[in-house]
From TrEMBL:
Residues 368-588 form the Histidine kinase domain. It comes from Kroppenstedtia guangzhouensis. It is a multi-pass membrane protein. GO terms for molecular function: kinase activity. The keyword Nucleotide-binding applies. Its main location: membrane. This is histidine kinase. CDD domains: HAMP (cd06225), HATPase (cd00075), HisKA (cd00082). InterPro entries: BphY/WalK/GraS-like (IPR050351), Cache_WalK (IPR057640), HAMP_dom (IPR003660), HATPase_C_sf (IPR036890), HATPase_dom (IPR003594), His_kinase_dom (IPR005467), HisK_dim/P_dom (IPR003661), HisK_dim/P_sf (IPR036097).
């Protein structure tokens, strides 16, 4: 085991790798060298044979070939200085050997190997095994006036060449072994200079892995190892800072998740919860535990099939006893992808109850507008058709009553359209307010005068109560008059005879001025208070239409007050009365002098 640990050390791994690389390099070099050496020797032998063949062809000449005199040819071959190991043959145009330096018995035999030369090939070379040795065969054509008369054929043994290659190989192997030994010793020494500092860095890294980032590595040189040690120390410092920053970021992320207005649930690829925030638990009204299946957390009609690879949305209705309190949650499922593979799922829960409520209100608004316009139009059309028939015109009183009803319905439509246009302009912020400093006492006194006659007719006790030294308000007189007219008109309409209405104003602690209209009328049921400022919303539709209301007065009042920077509230007890309060900003806020 000890030797195994030593061998597994970086030091011996470097030595082993260095030795293997050197051995592989030497082998590759040897293979290439031997290949090139053999190729060089073969090329040299071929060139030598080609020169010999060319010399033989020049000495023999075409005349000797034409005579085909074997003795003359043999004599010419004997006169040439040729390598005795090689066999030279002169072949005529029919392929028969007519002269040779070898065994005379081969004469008069046919040399089929030179057929390509006799057929027009310029040179022919080939290496063949023969009698336990390898031979190189070479041949050149003998021509006259482009006609092939014969060929020169040389057969050379290659034993001596291979012996030379073997001797060179043995010398190279000896040099390689000596180089390997010397390089190994040098590699061991060099590896120690590299591995000792790395070993120290490894020990420090092990300590860092256990959480101690205060250790430092000794820098002993300015080379790459020394730079590595310096970089390691720098890394340790950055890790300390990064971990500290990571803890801060983690705390901030947890704080963001905990305080998000939307619910968030994260799962792994199998659909098990790994992260959730408090808002998700509040919206689902249940405790979410880590490791719980998402299909158990969310009461879905169609459970999720994991892994989820595509983004999708759905809506979840949480049942409540009261239909008005039913919660609608929008669920957005977003897969977490890594290399195009789903490794998790993020579920975002959004409470869209208000959006759904606004959508229903919009539809109700369109329906109400259609109904409010259709009713007077139907009345006007019916009366005009009766007048057009002519029978009513014979009775002046009936005709006058028909015309009066038609005019009233037309005025009702005019008021409705005017209120709708005003609301549209207020929504689009296209209404220009001519704001000026206004004394509120004058504005409220004038409003009380306008409704005093109606109150006396219904025997309603109208009281005006103003606090002394009220600050001026910065407002549009016409718009504030409209707010007062709408609120006082409602108070007079819905207050029975003999009851009381009060109009008052006071300065609030924040400097704003608060105006209150209180009546002892029929009041508003508690279930209707949240929707009382909605457009066309009426508690008693039949009574409101009979009294001539459009259902837009409170909505217009709220938009005007908000456009002035104030607020409006309504309090009511059914059967006891209603109080409406709105605030307006002062023109000159008071500054306390120290």
């Amino acid at each position: 085991m000890k030797w195994l640990r030593i061998f597994n050390s970086v030091h011996w791994k470097l030595v082993t790798i260095y030795g293997l690389l050197l051995l592989i390099s030497m082998q590759l070099i040897g293979v290439y060298f031997f290949k090139e050496l053999k190729s060089t020797f073969e090329n040299n032998l071929e060139n030598s044979l080609e020169k010999q063949a060319g010399s033989i062809r020049s000495v023999i000449g075409t005349s000797a070939m034409a005579d085909s005199d074997r003795k003359k040819l043999d004599k010419l071959l004997d006169q040439l200085t040729l390598d005795k190991k090689n066999t030279v043959q002169i072949v005529n145009q029919d392929g028969f050997i007519i002269a040779t330096t070898g065994d005379d018995s081969s004469q008069a035999q046919k040399n089929t190997w030179v057929n390509p030369i006799l057929q027009g090939k310029e040179k022919l070379t080939k290496i063949i095994p023969k009698a336990g040795n390898r031979y190189m065969l070479f041949s050149l054509p003998i021509k006259k006036d482009g006609k092939v008369l014969g060929a020169v054929y040389i057969e050379a043994p290659m034993r001596e060449m291979y012996e030379n290659i073997r001797n060179i190989t043995e010398i190279l192997i000896k040099i390689t072994v000596v180089s390997m030994v010397g390089s190994s010793v040098l590699g061991i020494v060099l590896a120690r200079t590299i591995t000792n500092p790395i070993k120290e860095i490894t020990e420090q890294a092990t300590v860092m892995a256990e959480g101690d980032f205060d250790r430092q590595v000794t820098v002993k040189s300015d080379d790459e190892i020394g730079k590595l040690a310096s970089a390691f120390n720098h890394l340790a410092q950055h890790l300390r800072d990064a971990l500290s920053q990571n803890e801060e970021e983690k705390g901030r992320l947890q704080s963001v998740l905990a305080n998000m207005s939307d619910g968030v649930i994260a799962t792994n690829r199998k659909g098990r919860v790994i992260v959730s925030n408090r808002r998700a638990e509040e919206m689902l009204d249940k405790k979410i535990s880590d490791g719980e299946a998402i299909n158990q957390v969310l009461p879905l009609a169609n459970p999720l099939v994991f892994p989820v690879t595509e983004e999708r949305q759905t809506f979840l209705e949480l049942d409540a006893q009261d239909e008005e309190e039913q919660t609608i949650i929008k669920l957005t499922f977003t897969p977490v992808l890594r290399a195009k593979e789903a490794v998790g799922l993020i579920v975002v829960l959004q409470d869209v109850t208000e959006e759904d409520k606004l959508d229903r209100q919009r539809k109700e608004f369109v329906a109400n507008v259609s109904h409010e316009l259709r009713t007077p139009l139907t009345t006007i059309k019916s009366y005009l058709e009766a007048l057009d028939e002519g029978g009513v015109m014979e009775e002046p009183e009936l005709a006058s009553r028909f015309m009066r009803v038609t005019r009233q319905e037309a005025e009702r439509m005019t008021r409705l359209i005017h209120d709708l246009l005003q609301l549209s302009r207020l929504d689009a912020e296209k209404v220009r307010f001519r704001k000026v400093p206004l004394p509120l006492e004058t504005v409220l006194s004038d409003a009380a005068d306008r409704f005093s006659f109606q109150c006396r007719q219904k025997e309603i006790d109208f009281q005006l109560s103003l606090e002394e030294d009220l600050p001026r308000v910065y407002a549009d007189r016409d718009q504030i008059d409209q707010v007062l007219d709408n609120l006082l008109s409602n108070a007079v309409k819905y207050t029975p005879e003999g009851k009381k209405i009060s109009l008052s104003a006071r300065k609030c602690s924040d400097g704003y001025v608060q105006v209150s209209i209180a009546d002892k009328g029929i009041g508003i049921p508690k279930k209707d208070l949240e929707r009382i400022f909605e457009r066309f919303y009426r508690v008693d539709k039949a009574r409101s239409r009979r009294l001539g209301g459009t259902g837009l007065g409170l909505s217009i009042a709220r938009e005007i007050v908000r456009a002035h920077g104030g607020s409006i509230q309504l309090e009511s007890t059914y059967g006891k009365g209603t109080t409406v309060r709105f605030t307006l900003p002062p023109c000159e806020p008071e500054v306390t002098q120290l």
